[in-house]
Structures are given as C-alpha cells and as structure tokens.
Specification:
Elements lengths: L4 H27 L52 E2 L7 E9 L5 E9 L4 H7 L5 H9 L12 E6 L2 E6 L9 H15 L7 E6 L16 E2 L19 E8 L6 E8 L5 H10 L17 E7 L2 E6 L14 H12 L6 E6 L2 E2 L7 E2 L7 H16 L4
Parallel strand pairs: 5-6, 11-12
Antiparallel strand pairs: 1-2, 2-3, 4-5, 6-7, 8-9, 10-11, 12-13, 12-14
Helix pairs in contact: 1-3, 1-7, 5-6
Length: about 375
C-alpha cells in the first residue's frame, strides 16, 4: 500500500494512538479488572445447525491449550490442565477461546490467557460483551465484541447441554446480521468446552422463537459451519460438501476460518485447490497464494502434505509480513484432515527454501499476544512503504 505525505501523517497519528491504546490496555489488565459487560456488530451469516452433534474442535484438529470444562451443575467448570500455567503472584491462569468479529463481521476465534476461576465458560462469554475494558482488549487485536452493552448472562451446564439466559439487551440489536452473529459466536464459544455439545437459549428468563429481527433462538443448537460463504443457486439441492478454508484477515494479523461448499470430496486436495482460488470477497480477506500462481498437485506422504505450486509462489515474500500468515493459513487448511501432520511447499517441483523444512501445526490459529505484535508490525510496514 502506498501513502502520500498527508496520508502518512494521518496514519502515523493513528498508529501512535494504537500504541497508546495497547499501553493503556496493559495497564488496565495489571491494575483493574474489566467489568465484563460489552458490545455489538455485524457479519456474514454463520451456519449453526440445530439437532446434530459435532465435535468441539477447531479446524479438524484437537486444540492444544483449548478450554475444557468438567461437567458440573450451575456452570462450575475447570479449564484443561494443558491450558493452565502459573502466573506468579497473580495466581494460576488458563487459556480460553473467545470469539470476536472483524470489521466485516467474520467471526474470529482467539486464544486468550485469563485468570483461572470457577465458571470459566461464563467468564469467557462475559469477555464478549461490549464494555470499556472488553472493547479495549478487542481493539488491541484489531477486532470487536459481539454482545450488546450491559448484557447479563446466566449459564447452567449439565449433561452436555449449556442453557444460557441472556438479558433483554439482546432484543435491541441493530439488525438480523448482528443478531445472527451473536448467536453463532455464543454457540461456537460454548462448544469449545468439552462439557458442552448443545446450547439452548433463554431471553430475559423466557423461551422465544426468534429475536427482534427474526433470528431463530428456539430449540437446541450444536456447533455448525463457521463463516459460511454464500451458496450459489445452482448448488441448491445438489450434493455438496463443506470444507473449511483459512485466510489472513484484512488487518494482516489474524487468520479467519471460512466454510465453502464444494461439489468435490472434502479432502486436502480439494481444500488446497479452493484455497488457491482465493476468498470469495477479496476486499475483506487476503489471498493465500500470489496473483497468477497455480497449484500443480498435492501429495500426502507419511503425514506430510507436499504442495507443489507454479513459479509465481515465490512472490509471497513481497507480502508485508514476508508471507508468514499465508504459510500459516496453508498449514491450518491442510492439517485439519486426518493423516496430515505437517506441510512442505514446492515450487515447480523444487523444495521452497523459505519454508525451512516442514511447516508444523501452530498451537492455535490466533493467539492474543501474537496478534497484538503482528498487528502493529503489519501496520507499521504499510505506513513506511514509501515507494
């Protein structure tokens, strides 16, 4: 991206404000605890299906450090041991998956480190409510909260069912898109916990068929397809399969999971081919492969997916991050499938040196501390691209 002199000055001011916000957020986390109430937004409709069971995992891989919750009445849960760490005088901490949304409404899961406490599922949901503290944390990630300000949450988990009671603030959301995004984010967040496979909604203590703008909230919801792309009319009634693709977000600091319906078998070959086609809306997400780059073939040997691209792939290094996020998206897309543990890149049949061997699976697609660093680095690189 190129900037004129006046644009650079404005952008520099914005970057300075971002750095100040990061500093304030850090101070807030040290000296004050966010009140846990929070926000609204918009988004592409996500397919949360009702009545069918789904594994509480992300991208087809068990999450390392994902929040697990032991079943207990009245939302008494404990986080998984694998996601717990000592926090010195601040006490034990654990990892939990929070669902935010980006500026275009795509849901973005982020692994966050939080203080260990009973009822970690409810605490996680409270981080998604619009408030000064929560919005500041989301802004550090280049993201936004999904629940309206002052929303109160009651949660009971028993026998795999999470019954969530949301206060009447959720009846005042801007439109159906915001409502749908909120419902989807809540279901995705709760089903990250091993103790939850179904979610049931109450609104202000009462069962409802729909929210104000018509979004269904009746019955029980299970984990569905995230950020489902629009289905073409020609696919209606056709035999299609969902495949999850991972694209860098427009900020250059997060990975966004997208569900695309395909006529082919939903396997690693199809996924990489679809990924190479790029996002359905290039203004909202970044392409993984450079313009003009083609996919020659995909082979899986001994758990390694070997991706062979045409010569244009080497232009990946021209990305502001050197292509790191694109490579991460490739790995996440491939390793969601059983039998694929790592990825190797080839260009016209020759090993791509920049990969430095096999590309392993990251701990999680988005980790909060890494996002903050990457976001500032990417924005700085864009600012000082003077040519």
């Amino acid at each position: 991206m190129k900037f004129s002199g006046s644009q650079r000055r404005v952008y520099l001011l914005a970057l300075a404000l971002l750095v100040i916000a990061v500093a304030l957020a850090s101070a807030w986390s040290l000296w004050g605890k966010p009140d846990g109430s929070p926000g609204a937004t918009t988004m592409p409709t996500q397919d949360v299906q009702s009545g069918q069971e789904a594994e509480p995992s992300q991208g087809g891989q068990p999450l390392q450090g994902s929040p697990e919750a032991e079943e207990a009445p009245a939302d008494r849960q404990t986080a998984a041991d694998s996601g717990t760490e000592a926090a010195g005088s601040g006490g034990a901490r654990t990892s939990t998956i929070v669902y935010y949304q980006d500026n275009y409404g795509y849901l973005v899961p982020v692994m966050c480190s939080v203080p260990m406490e009973d009822g970690i599922a409810k605490a996680t949901l409270n981080m998604m409510v619009q408030s000064v503290g929560n919005d500041m944390q989301a802004a550090r990630l280049g993201l936004r909260t999904v629940l309206p300000e002052n929303t109160k949450i009651d949660l009971d988990i028993s026998n795999g069912l999470a019954r969530i009671d949301l206060s009447r603030e959720v009846l005042d959301m801007a439109d159906a898109a915001a409502e749908s995004n909120m419902v989807n984010a809540v279901v995705q967040t709760l089903t990250e916990f091993d103790s939850v496979d179904r979610v049931e909604f109450l609104i202000d203590g009462q069962k409802r068929e729909t929210l104000t703008h018509g979004t269904p909230v009746a019955g029980q919801f299970t984990r569905g397809d995230i950020n489902l792309e629009s289905v073409e009319p020609t696919m209606a009634g056709a035999s299609v399969q969902p495949v999850t693709l991972y694209f860098p977000g427009d900020s250059g600091a997060v990975i966004v999971p997208v569900t695309r319906m395909v006529h082919s078998r939903a396997d690693v070959n199809t996924a990489v081919l679809e990924l190479a086609k790029g996002p359905s809306n290039g203004d909202m997400l970044e392409s993984v492969v450079p313009a003009g780059c083609g996919l020659i073939d995909v082979q899986v040997e001994n758990g390694v997916a070997k991706l062979n691209f045409t010569s244009e792939f080497v232009n990946l290094v021209e990305n502001s991050d050197g292509g790191r996020m694109a490579l991460k998206a490739l790995v996440l897309t491939c390793t969601q499938f059983d039998g694929v543990d790592s990825v190797e890149i080839y260009v016209d049949g020759r090993k791509y040196d920049a990969t430095q061997g096999e590309l392993g699976v990251p701990t999680f697609m988005n980790v909060a501390d890494s996002i903050v660093y990457d976001y500032i680095q990417t924005q700085s690189a864009m600012l000082f691209d003077f040519e």
